[in-house]
Amino acid sequence: MISALWCYRVAQKRLRKWLNTEVAIMADFIVRAGLASWELLLDSAVYILFGILVAGLLKVVLSPAAVARHLGQGRFMSVVKAAFFGVPLPLCSCGVLPAAVSLRKQGANKGATSAFLISTPESGVDSIAITYALLDPIMTLMRPVAAFCSAIMAGFLENIISRPSAETMAPADLSCPIDSCCDGINCDPLEHRRHHSVWEKVVAGFKYALLDVWGDIAVWFFAGLIIAGLITALVPDELLMNWLGGGISSMLIMLVIGIPLYICATASTPVAAALILKGVSPGAALVFLLVGPATNVTSLSVLVGILGKWSTVRYLLVLSLSAITFGLLTDFVYGLSGISARAVVGEAAELIPAGVKLTMTFVLLILSVRPVSFWLRKQLRLEKPVLTFQSGFPDLKPLAPMTKEQKPDKHPSSCGCDH
Known about the structure:
Strand content: under 5%
Number of strands: 0
Shape: globular
């Protein structure tokens, strides 16, 4: 009895010690991951706000519906315009699909549509700003250039293989981009441009930026921050350096990871920064930044309906080849210049005073309350149960058609009986 009690106490002490060790390890991991995510948020908040505000102003000046009339005619010029217009627009791989469908319906050829589908989700004024904050000027330049060139190559190939037929110019959407107060057809163009003051346009652009643009990407941006923090705290440096330190093999691994993954251009940037800090080559990180936002499993099925099966295959082929090409070129540029991407990550954010970064971070968090809470309510919303009734009654046989004698009298008696 005494020996059994002694064994129980020894086992109890060891169990408590083991539990305390496990809890300490878990707490240390959570703290390190949280601090890494917080540092990335501090570095990126100012640039995120700047990017989404510029995106809101672009909504007033340059909307997909307004530029659709430029994308219908011409085998090559329409592709260049589509790629150029797509680079600054802040749309993710799923958000770009309705815009691409609209362009296609309004007369844009397949090449221009393919170019728009590549350049738009791969880049954007918001993602360019956060790339400058979290990465470095070289990656900030390579990202939109790679997106633009990839889009042009895909569009040119599509229009060369499947030459667009002579298509009529779709009527331009002249409706007011501020609040659609008129269709722009039955009013003088000069009067149409004066419907709203400059201040009203700026306010409308800011509302669109803070409610629509940030509302669409806020949840995914914070998910990217959390993933980046987990990578920083969990993944050993040697593991990623051995597998993703550079070369074609690391690019191919990033292709396999990035193509089916759903992540927007802004949310992918902190993940890429964490990967580079862990020893991943900048070229492999660029491959992730290009193919991750441009494709995912859901959007590929929609692309088949928009472009067709073989056009989607060519879309993926050109996207993959161009991503690997620019990834290798990026590694070559860093090697030639003697710059270590790991050493310069986030240096641009050091130019912002600590007080400004902290203030802008709290502003960004306040603006994120509405979209994040809406997303949480949507995820936790329970569907109302459908009422069903079950009985043990035998199945009723279908009634035979009534004969003329069986049909009721058109004028029944007032009392309701048959007499």
